[in-house]
Amino acid sequence: MEVLGNYWLRRILVRIASVVVYEGQDTHTGMPVMVLKGAQGVPALGEGVLPFLEETPEAWVLEWPIGAVPLSQYLGVADLERLEHWVREMARILASLKAQGVSHAPIPELCLVKGKRVWLAGVGLKELSGEPEKALAALARALAGERYPEFPLRETLERIEAKEDPLEVLFSEPAHAHGVQETEALTPETPGQEDRPLQDASSKPEEEPRLPSASRKVLSVDPVPEASNGQEVSPTKETTPPEGKTPSRPRVIRIEEPEEPPFTVVEPPRPRRRTLLLGLLGAVVLLGLALLFLRPSSPSGGGYVMEFRTEPPTERAEVVLLEVPQGSQMVPGRVLLVAPGKAEFDQEGVYRLRIRVAGRDPVDYLLEVPGPPLVIKVR
Length: 379
Prior knowledge:
Keywords: Membrane, Transmembrane, Transmembrane helix. This protein is of the alpha+beta class.
């Protein structure tokens, strides 16, 4: 492991011409950092850009947010919904930098993500100066892989790459669409609708019954059938005798109690038997408490099982747990499993894993639980 000043250079992330980018660590604080050895240019600052810690004649040192991973971990396997959010965030950052006169062409190794947060590294580096529109489209294609034709922002990125639309359409599109919907909802259907007088409730046309959608469950309610003669029976009609007829004498119903009780008579237990039963009950309670306190604690059920696959299936990958979300009882540093296989997580959230394959550098991965099966491609 190399040392540069106060920083350990743990592993190489990428080489860009004469610049070598390392994942490093501060020897004093132990905090993770990114070291750009041989960097030339003027470092840029701003929202969404990795904070700048130090500039030496040999390198730039940037802060590495805890739990963040490079986008290169998701090449070809990125979830399209998360990728859409990342692309919009990067477009917002790139447009802000372009307004400052900085043209930055991001690459996956120098884009860090953690959940929905995105950071760009190496902004201001001469080797990364270029057209952000083309770089963003190429980055989205690389992350989506074979599923890029299904990517919702594909056509928008193609128009941006061809300079037909600006970057701003990516992060202003949802707000614009939402505003249009609200305007349509507030606009009356006809121009003179507000000036019409109020109509009587009986003159309103009956609304056509809406057909239930496929995604909704429909509760069927059937009306209660009416009486056979088509008339409702009211309590007054039952008690009121018909006119011209004398009411008959009320029917008397006798309810007598049976001579024998409907239950078995239980005699009180003898004092000796009661003492024996109380002692036996106390012994059972003490035995139950002893078993409760002496039995080993079992892990709580209801965990989340995640499947890990390898491609090709003959490869084996060791998965090590590095960081756990708040509330999890799992111990970091232990080996979860050797993929392919399944592992159980006790808490939903984001876990940081390290994947080791024989003959290759280890790779850190940010796993969101619950989620789809994770495919480890060994190239």
